[in-house]
Design brief:
255 residues; seven-stranded mixed sheet; single chain; Metallo-beta-lactamase, Chain A
Length: 255
């Protein structure tokens, strides 16, 4: 199984529009961050977690030519608003793409992309998707996923465990029953926004502490803001913890 980081940035992406900070002006390609998303490839099939506003560019850059399912963590714009571009895969594959999310997320999908379901827009074609409510473990693209409930501020959203890997973004707290689901991992992907505390996202310090508690073989931080230089921030991390970057590829066992 292979995980490709399609984006590792926050809701505005990096560089941030109108910002002249050192990270936004950096020449280091690892400081260029599209909105947070990953592709998971296994046995010739591909699942993507979250369709960001850069979805089209992300899949083109990653060379992804097949899409078997989309998993949504929650319905905020930076995780959802590229959904329309699924229609490119519909045209190639000639069948609907299953999309998975919790009830609240799927309701926002229905409201935000109502034209998909009402059949009123024909000029440029319509995305063809099926909505599947996540209530427990499920299979998508031949991969077994287990939902992991976390808190994004006061709101419950979903992370996902698959095999010996897990993806958690935009979390600010993880309940104990979900902590138990994140044990015995080879790869943990976890958000780490910035050094300073934030009401709806883990800070770097909080994520480092959680990584030490969960003891995954390798922890990769994502959803990183423009206050963190990749090179400088990476140098301060403990062993087995790292900042991911756009285009990073990680192989993990299917066990």
């Amino acid at each position: 199984m292979r995980i490709t980081f399609l984006g590792t940035g926050t809701s505005q992406g990096i560089p941030v529009i109108g910002c002249a900070c050192a990270v936004c002006r950096s020449a280091d390609p690892k400081d260029k961050r599209r909105r947070a998303s990953v592709a998971i490839e296994s046995k010739g099939r591909t699942v993507i977690i979250d369709t960001t506003p850069e979805f089209r560019l992300q899949v083109l850059d990653a060379g992804i030519t097949r899409l078997d399912a989309v998993l949504l963590t929650h319905a905020h714009a930076d995780h959802l608003h590229g959904l329309d571009d699924i229609r490119g895969f519909n045209h190639v594959q000639n069948h609907p793409i299953p999309c998975f999310g919790d009830r609240d997320t799927l309701q926002v999908v229905r409201e935000t992309f109502r034209y998909i379901f009402e059949g009123t827009n024909f000029g440029g074609g319509l995305p063809e998707i099926t909505l599947n409510e996540v209530k427990g473990p499920f299979t998508a693209g031949g991969i077994l996923f287990e939902p992991v409930e976390v808190f994004h501020g006061p709101v419950k959203i979903l992370g996902y465990r698959f095999g010996r890997a897990a993806y958690v973004t935009d979390a600010s707290a993880i309940p104990e029953q979900s902590v138990r689901k994140l044990q015995d991992l080879d790869i943990l992907v976890l958000n780490a926004l910035r050094y300073e505390p934030h009401p709806t996202h883990f800070s770097v310090g909080e994520s480092v502490e959680l990584a030490a508690r969960l003891r995954a073989q390798r922890t990769c931080f994502t959803h990183i803001c423009h206050r963190l230089s990749h090179a400088e921030a990476s140098a301060a991390l403990p062993a087995a913890v790292e900042f991911a970057y756009d285009g990073l590829v990680v192989d993990v066992g299917d066990r």
